[in-house]
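Workshop exercise sheet. Pairs work together: one partner reads the sequence aloud, the other fills in the structure field after running the prediction. Swap roles for the next sheet.
Pair: D.N. / O.F.
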Amino acid sequence: MNKASIIWVTQYRFAPINSPNEQFTGYVLGLMSDRESYQQAVETFLSTQNLSGHFQLAALPIQTWFTRHGFSAPLWRLAQQISPENPIILFRENALSVEAIAEDTEYLVQE
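Structure field:
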């Protein structure tokens, strides 16, 4: 019996292999049938991207992640881009600039 694939997500601490002092935090989303397959795919992905890294939180199905850690629109948008042809996506934690966020919420600023 073949298990259905679901989207897994976890938070990672990354560093380029050639520049270990240039660390950054991000998330890795993956379309896999189970946690073990996800973790193996992430290790392969990191290797092909010349990154080293370690997870900071346990990998969870994305629905469980949102329940425990709160909804994240950027993670949701990335999850919509995952497919069997593109099963792994890395998202840097600070990928949205402050300016972009401010432009979207300008109506909330009182002068």
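Discussion prompt: The beta strands are 6-16, 24-32, 51-55, 60-61, 88-92. What would you look at next?
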